[in-house]
């Protein structure tokens, strides 16, 4: 029986050797080839990038072989390449898109297949739906239309080589990406103030990027977990407060101004402040928006997901700007950045991009922006946060992941269809949004979002409140109403 292959929030992911097999990877590559050739874009070629996971090189070569077999030249990035760099290479080579082989921050047994269209941001649902339809046809033994069976010239058509000597650097997107990112970040200002930064690329594809860019600017660098390890040191390559304890200790003991971490494919960020405090994405995004508005003098709307802090909304209101709220998934953020002219797009799970960059989340960019902010203001991020809170008020955000049984999940989903309490934690419910889950906004601006997992018996409860006490009260009340323990 054929395994059903579907694209989730950020591509198709599966356990290596069980679901993520060479046969399935080749199948998906052929489905992508059919999609590209149907658009008439095949001759522009596709970029193929990959992370540091087990058999990454071999999977990338299998994809390249399938694409070239369908007449599509390939820009194969040999060596681990971050997702944002692979996406940027689309623009660099004027390609029709990219395939990125990564499971991002998932556990070591997983790998994934992500398609990035020609606009260099995550594929929207109508695109992945078409690829899924092609996969189903191929699994059923039906031919896909618009196959181009004349192979591309050369082994992979076009090869983008990993630099083994300095003289080869120009043949890899590394150099061009660094040049581009250096035009966005004020590296001269960063270099002048004598920063010390500790970097944890978490054994992932981002090894070499932050340390090279900041080191060249004159920053004192300490880096660790910067060798390839497909097991990620026995943990998840996910830069959250729980996973960055060693980075926290190194920042404090070494007297560094910042600790910067990247996830497995370097599209998400983690930040430790000089005092050892973990700066959450819901804290960093308002800091960054404020920096863009007040220091860079930019004006424009902000894009955020339904689960991301409303402190961005308070700032936008003061500066007469719009906020575009979307479902969870950076593909929707990227769409708003492309279509609405947003100067910042971000999500509470650690993805962001800004005007002038690609509409793909980029942890390298985020880390550099953090360094720019500390350098410019001469203050820690915690001190800058206090400034922002003094002007706009402080909000307290937290996500709880609550496991249930499949039967409980089904019962709660039925209950949520008509879930419309008039009050929560003593506050009237002002609005209900069902764009992605069930979101209830209270009269005082606090809110609750209940989102079921699409793949397991799990609910994610997001709460943002005006005090820690209100946050705890809202969490408890929601758990009691829905009988979530």
Automatic annotation (TrEMBL):
Cofactor(s) this protein requires: Mg(2+)
Start and end residues of each Alpha-D-phosphohexomutase alpha/beta/alpha domain: 5-139, 176-276, 281-391
Single annotated GO MF: magnesium ion binding
Entry-linked CDD domains: PGM_like2
Keywords for this protein: Isomerase, Magnesium, Metal-binding, Phosphoprotein
Enzyme class: isomerase
Pathway in which this enzyme or protein is active: Lipid metabolism; Glycolipid metabolism; diglucosyl-diacylglycerol biosynthesis
Record carries keyword tRNA processing: no
Family: Belongs to the phosphohexose mutase family.
Name the record gives this protein: Phosphoglucomutase
């Amino acid at each position: 029986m054929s395994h059903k292959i579907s694209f989730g929030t950020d591509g198709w992911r599966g356990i290596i050797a069980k679901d993520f097999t060479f046969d399935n990877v080749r199948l998906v590559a052929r489905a992508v080839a059919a999609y590209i050739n149907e658009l008439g874009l095949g001759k522009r070629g596709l970029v193929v990038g990959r992370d540091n996971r087990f058999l990454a090189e071999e999977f990338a070569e299998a994809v390249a072989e399938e694409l070239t077999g369908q007449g599509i030249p390939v820009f194969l990035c040999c060596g681990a390449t971050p997702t944002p760099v692979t996406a940027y290479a689309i623009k660099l080579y004027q390609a029709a898109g990219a395939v990125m082989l990564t499971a991002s921050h998932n556990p070591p047994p997983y790998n994934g297949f992500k398609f990035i269209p020609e606009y260099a941001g995550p594929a929207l649902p109508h695109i992945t739906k078409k690829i899924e339809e092609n996969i189903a046809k191929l699994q059923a033994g039906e031919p896909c239309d618009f196959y181009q069976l004349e192979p591309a010239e050369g082994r992979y058509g076009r090869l983008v080589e990993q630099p083994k000597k300095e003289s080869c650097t120009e043949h890899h997107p590394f150099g061009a990406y660094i040049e581009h990112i250096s035009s966005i970040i004020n590296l001269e200002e960063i270099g002048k103030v004598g920063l010390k930064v500790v970097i944890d690329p978490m054994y992932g594809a981002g090894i070499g990027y932050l340390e090279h860019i900041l080191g060249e600017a004159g920053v004192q660098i300490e880096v660790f977990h910067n060798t390839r390890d497909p097991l990620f040191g026995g943990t998840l390559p996910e830069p959250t407060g729980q996973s960055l304890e060693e980075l926290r200790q190194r920042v404090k003991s070494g007297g560094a101004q910042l600790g910067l971490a990247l996830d497995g494919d370097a599209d998400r960020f983690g930040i430790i402040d000089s005092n050892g405090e973990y700066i959450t994405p819901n804290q960093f995004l308002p800091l960054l928006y404020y920096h863009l508005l007040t220091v860079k003098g930019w004006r424009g709307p902000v894009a955020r997901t339904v689960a991301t802090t409303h402190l961005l909304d308070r700032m936008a209101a003061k500066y007469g700007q719009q906020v575009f709220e979307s479902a969870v998934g950076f593909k929707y953020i990227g769409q708003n950045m492309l279509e609405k002219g947003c100067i910042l797009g971000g999500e509470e799970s650690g993805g962001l991009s800004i005007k002038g960059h690609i509409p793909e989340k980029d942890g390298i960019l985020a880390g550099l922006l953090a360094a720019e902010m500390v350098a410019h203001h001469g203050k820690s991020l915690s001190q800058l946060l206090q400034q922002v809170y003094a002007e706009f008020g402080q909000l307290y955000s937290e996500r709880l992941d609550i496991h249930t049984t499949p039967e409980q999940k089904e019962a709660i989903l039925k209950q949520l269809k008509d879930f419309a309490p008039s009050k929560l934690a003593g506050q009237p419910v002002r609005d209900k949004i069902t764009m992605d889950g069930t979101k209830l906004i209270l009269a005082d601006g606090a809110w609750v979002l209940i989102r079921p997992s699409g793949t397991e018996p799990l609910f994610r409860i997001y709460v943002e409140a005006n005090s820690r006490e209100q946050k705890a009260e809202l969490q408890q009340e929601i758990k009691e109403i829905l009988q979530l323990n």
